[in-house]
Design a protein that fits this description.
Elements: H1 3-9, H2 16-38, H3 48-73, H4 81-107, H5 114-137, H6 143-173, H7 177-211
Helix pairs in contact: 2-3, 2-4, 2-5, 3-4, 4-7, 5-6, 5-7, 6-7
Length: 212
Amino acid sequence: MGIGNIFKAFQPKDKVFFTLFEEVADTLVEMSNTFHEGLKDFDINDDSLLKKMSEYEHKNDNTTHKIYTELSKNFITPFDREDIHHLTSALDDIADYMYASSKYIFLYKSPKNNSFAELTLLIQKACLEIRNAIINLKDFKNIQAVKESTIKINSYENLADDVLSNAMIQLFETGDAINVIKVSQVLSYMEKVTDKAEDVANVIDSIIIKYS
């Protein structure tokens, strides 16, 4: 019997960790959808988008706490305890940085920038692939699909780097120092979301190398 099959035999029957990971992934998808759509008609004097993002962030915090609680209670876990901790932390970071992005847009009354939509679309796509990866990681049932998702997440992060670089060049060319400060901060936080998504992909890649 291979190590993967041996490991599966000792997995918790209630699959609580995967249920919670999928809950987190669903929240991230919903949050990224709200962020992307909300910026299309964003009013800098309307805090409704910020409130929605805050609600998602708190919801994700609650699920994250449940995972850590289960980790302290369960001796047998679906994969290495340290990997569960790393994956949970990385997923939580995505929600934190998405919320931070929306917060700074509102607090700075940041003017619209075409790159906002490009970055939120990449964030949205990355979150969808994270959910696909987690769903297919369950029981290690479709490792190829997991790998395809992590590759896409990495490519989205690379694209986000390019978007940020081009946006910063255009921003500095405006010569508006205040605008540069406001917009660059937001762009930086948005790009950081894709960095955190890549962190999730890297943890998942590490897990499938160990146990598939």
